[in-house]
Design goal:
493 residues; 13 strands; alpha/beta; 5-stranded parallel β-sheet; 2 domains
């Protein structure tokens, strides 16, 4: 294998020619590599689901236009992941002068220490190589970020040790932005950045240079700048100042998954479900759909603050909790297979309630109540998909004749099935959501409970903590209904 050039003279004779690399900017590099991907028909940004026809084409246009751009979207919309995926459009490695803090181009160095190095060693100047990951610099914007953090400052210790004047370029301590030279600089949550710091980005975005501490030091940096922001942050915590917005080439809106199928694909990709061990894990499709439907319903519920959004992290963490609760049950009951049930979704409330903000009406009811209602509605929607048109009256009649069945989320599958066998038609009808072939006890218990929870969600049977599933109480006196009304709605005497 041919070794890489280690000096400037060797670099000139290699495929890293001066003609190609002396004037090629990082935005040119991104554009060229993107064109190659498009010509080959490659999938751009692996792991990004649901944006193929919306966000990704707009990002592609921005890169082809050599724009700095911003991703606007609510929390949990993969904005940061997209920015980090941009490194796949960089060259696998890029030559730079060895030891340079700002990754100087060997053919056109901009910092004084590198210019002095070339004067001293000429074509013998040592060469290092930058990997893709090294060329991506990310900063989370916070109100305490200073110009020195972003741009740089004069370092008196460097001046004292080297015997330099403070105005000498060799005394500069470079900030994050210069250290991202010849790479990508990403700022997350841009509105949280103080206005005066945003002003410090003007020159680099328009003229391509920065100035440090008012000294006549000009650094014509080569950097692609990308941002993320939550639209609500413009008024909630800060704002993007107008002149900076004007300098951002493209403003791209992200969004939540458009379909439950896309949401399920994201959750399967991100949730930690491959846990190893000897117990086989099988997550029923209806459980996946219920978990995802909860997120979709929460985003549309008037009791949930839409401006805050409901992160895609909610179904991910919810699914992890669902599997964990089922795993805990199978371990304690010494069962060989883990199959989550609907009761495990209710047990995952801690992974749901912290993922949304409530409006006033929701605050009155409480996060737990809102989450339970979301789960119940989600179960009803998924149940309708599988059992629409099915004759389930025989099951309902069993309860109307006085039958009750209490199912705890912790009891073994065999015990659950024993109770379900008493209900005429229940296990036969649950075949619609079981895998083909002879079902395992865990699958049978999960499918049967889903059918009962679906009937409860459609208010064809009832359920209470004390008695479990029972007949729906259809008749209530006006006095009883009045008694059940919350105290805050009672009329004053």
């Amino acid at each position: 294998m041919k070794s890489k050039p280690t000096t400037l003279s060797e670099l000139r004779r290699s495929h890293f020619s001066e003609e190609r690399y002396s004037k090629r900017t990082v935005k040119d590099e991104l554009r060229e590599n993107l064109i190659c991907h498009l010509e080959r028909g490659d999938r751009l940004f692996e792991g990004i689901v649901g944006f193929d026809d919306t966000v990704i084409p707009q990002i592609t246009n921005a890169i082809l236009s050599r724009h700095n751009f911003i991703l606007l979207g609510l929390r949990g919309q993969a904005k940061t992941r997209i920015l980090r995926a941009l490194v796949t459009l960089l060259d696998e490695e890029l030559p730079a002068l060895a030891g340079c803090e700002i990754n100087d181009n060997p053919y056109a160095p901009i910092c004084r220490s590198c210019r002095l190095l070339l004067e001293e060693k000429g074509d013998g100047a040592p060469i290092a190589y930058l990997t893709r990951e090294f060329r991506y610099v990310e900063k989370l914007a916070t109100p305490d970020v200073t110009i020195a953090d972003m741009i740089g400052d004069i370092d008196p210790i460097k001046a004292a040790r080297g015997g330099h004047q403070l105005s000498d370029e060799l005394t500069i301590h470079y900030g994050l932005l210069p250290r991202a030279n010849r790479g990508i600089f990403a700022i997350n949550e841009l509105p949280d950045l103080a206005g005066k710091i945003q002003v410090g980005l003007f020159n680099i975005m328009q003229e391509g240079d920065v100035q440090i501490k008012g000294y006549p030091v000009r650094l014509p940096l080569d950097v692609a700048i990308v941002f993320t922001a939550n639209p609500e942050d413009y008024t909630a915590r800060g704002k993007i100042i107008t002149p900076l917005k004007d300098r951002i080439g493209s403003e791209i809106r992200t969004h939540y998954p458009a379909t439950t199928e896309e949401g399920i694909a994201i959750t399967e990709q991100e949730a930690w479900l491959s846990r190893g061990g000897t117990r086989h894990l099988a997550v029923p499709a209806f459980i996946q759909e219920i978990v995802e439907e909860v997120a979709f319903l929460a985003r549309a519920d008037k009791k949930v603050d839409k401006r805050s959004g409901v992160s895609q992290r909610m179904p991910i963490t919810c699914m992890e909790n669902v599997v964990s609760n089922a795993e805990r049950r199978t371990i304690r009951n010494h069962e060989p297979e883990t199959v989550p049930r609907v009761s495990d979704v209710y047990a995952s409330l801690p992974a749901i309630t912290g993922k949304f903000e409530l409006e006033y009406e929701g605050e009155l009811k409480g996060a737990d109540h809102v989450a339970r209602e979301l789960i119940r509605t989600a179960v009803g929607k998924v149940f309708q998909k599988y059992f629409d048109g099915a004759d389930l009256q025989q099951i309902v009649q069993w309860f109307e004749l006085g039958g009750t069945l209490k199912i705890s989320e912790s009891i073994p599958s065999a015990e659950v099935i024993g109770g379900m066998k008493k209900i005429q038609g229940l296990l036969e009808k649950s075949v619609a959501v079981r895998p083909p072939g002879k079902p395992t006890p865990a699958w049978t218990a999960s499918a049967g409970e889903f059918l009962l929870e679906g009937l409860y969600a459609q208010r064809r049977i009832s359920r209470s903590e004390e008695r479990g599933f029972m007949a729906e109480e259809r008749k209530q006196t006006a006095a009883a209904r009045e008694e059940m009304r919350p105290p805050y709605r009672r009329p004053y005497n």
